[in-house]
Amino acid sequence: MIYLLCLVLFCVGIYGLLSKRNIIKMIVGLIIAEHAVNLFFILVAYRRNGRAPILAPDVAITQMVDPLPQALVLTAIVIGLATTALLVALAIRIYGKYGTYDIAKIRELRG
Amino acid sequence: MSDPVVLLPCFVAVPLAAAFVNSLLGKRIHWLSDLLGSLTPLILLGLSLLAVQAVRADSVLVYQVGGWKLPIGIAMVMDGLTSFMLVTVNMVTFAIAVYARDYMERYTSKEMFYTLFLLMLAGMNGVIVSGDLFNLFVFLEIAAVASYALVAFGTERHELEAAFKYAVMGTVGSLFILLGIVFLYSVTSTLNMADMGQMLAKQKDTNLILMVSVLFLMGFGLKAALVPFHAWLPDAHPSAPAPISAMLSGVLIKTLGIYALSRIFFNVIGLTPAVSSILMFLGTLSMVVGVLLAIGQRDLKRLLAYSSISQIGYVVLGIGLATPLGILGGLLHLFNHSVFKALLFLNSGALEYATGTRDLEAMGGLRKKMPVTSTTSFVASMSIAGMPPFGGFWSKLLIIMAAVQAGHLGYALWAVIVSVLTLALFARVIKNAFLGNLDDRWQGVREVPAFMQASMMALAFICLVSGTLLIPGIREVFLNQATEIFVKGSDYSILILGNI
């Protein structure tokens, strides 16, 4: 069920990316899709009734959630931050040159 | 050096350190960034030649980062394929870095350029040596983010638009790759590529593997610009400064796309006949569509970008055939294409440097004014069109022979047709740019500076002699070791885990 919600979130992000004409909204769509993947990664590691993976001498290693994906998602978030920062910087420069955020008016190159 | 294993982290650490020093000091000491930018790829080229030697002795080297035992720790792996790719990437990068020394004078903040350039190199080397799936993803993103910034380096209208498009599509591609990695982790609970290969071999759930295959095909297909996912390439490659176009077309799409794709499909997931036929189909489609779109172009760099799509199709077709001969041909074509496409982009940069235009119709008769550029671009054009003495002929011949041998006559026929079309395409380029009468406008044109000439001549020389890589004796050292890794397929994991 909750996996399905993740999928919905991913689709919302991709839909935003594809259908919006404003490049800032496109970037927001991309961020949503990115976080859907991150959330999914955390869910994969979750164990039912699990607890925080803190290793101490008096705790047995049972019922812990998997700590590895949490570390990886942290890395993925940082990568996402770098990409987003670059995209926003590009958007500012595009606005400076074209005077608009509308992607339909920024089409001088054809694929 | 006593133990060759310590070579492995150097491939990432050296360019990263150079980029760091460069960003700190490059602004104040101008000669330093030129020196670092060219010297680092040269050192890495030397190291990768040492690595070829080491692989010949040991076959597989595994470096465990931080001393953690596999499969828990992060691994860096050196095998035949790795050393082959490292030599290709660092050699081409060195030639481009020498070229960039004079070319980039036209832009401001050259030290920033070299910082990003070295970061991109670090990312690519990281992708190649990584033996850990998530680590591969991180390095892939380092190289990709640096390349988005480099495409926008001119910060003019077209550069920015192309970079935005490239960055958005590249990020979506990365998302698919990350999603694929998440699915693989959820079934195998490991990220080490060798360990994962063994786990997946026991796995019965074919639906999930199918889904992961599709995700990886989309993600890496986007990075490699295979045809349904190619829309960003013809914008991004022409908009970047010429050395970066050469880097993107020459090595980046191969490392991030082809290498990563084939490493995962051959050595981790295991190549199924379905995936193999999809690869062959996509390869042929890219081959045909790329060359057809290239024919109508007037802008020289855009024409070269479309032709890159077409040539990548050859590589994918060769590797997708999955027979030893096909893989050998694919890898040799990968090597050849890095050299001649980098050279062609450098030539187009030299033309733009001298005349200020990229429009083929406006040029003409430049042969007398720019003898070095015209000769080297003639060599590169003949090589890409597959004329006999040059390197491109041998690799195309091997791919076509392999396709016939495997019974795919249709694909072989298409490969021949595309080769003929490529010849026609580049005959037009040579005719329009270098032959014919010299326009009065170009009377004052002079040949480009010496460093740019030297790097173009070096690449042209490699174009001429790369056919010799097939001679028995040299082939065993270089190409066969790389081919073996693919042929072994999932046995690769036993090789690595057994080596510790």
Radius of gyration of chain A over all CA atoms, rounded: 19 Å
Lateral arrangement of strands in the main beta sheet of chain B: 1-2
Q: How many domain units of chain B?
A: 1
Q: SSE order of chain B, as H and E?
A: HHEEHHHHHHHHHHHHHHHHHH
**CATH fold-type name of chain A:** Helix Hairpins
Please state the oligomeric state of the protein chains shown. Answer: heterodimer
* Residue runs with pLDDT of under 50 for 5 or more positions of chain A: none
Major sheet description of chain B: 2 strands, antiparallel
Helix run count of chain A: 3
Shape, per Cα inertia axes of chain A: elongated
Structural class of chain A: mainly alpha
Runs of chain B in which pLDDT lies below 50 for 5 or more consecutive residues are none
Total individual domains of chain A? 1
Number of strands of chain A: 0
SSE string of chain A: HHH
Description:
The complex is a heterodimer of chains A (111) and B (500). Chain A has a single domain, classed as Helix Hairpins (Orthogonal Bundle). Chain A is 66% helix and 0% strand. Chain A contains 3 helices and no strands. Chain A is elongated and about 65 Å long. Chain A starts with a helix and ends in a 13-residue tail after the last helix. The model of chain A has no long low-confidence stretch (mean pLDDT 86). Chain B has one domain. Helices cover 75% and strands 2% of the residues of chain B. A two-stranded antiparallel ribbon of chain B has the order 1-2. The model of chain B has no long low-confidence stretch (mean pLDDT 87). The chains are: A mainly alpha (111), B mainly alpha (500).
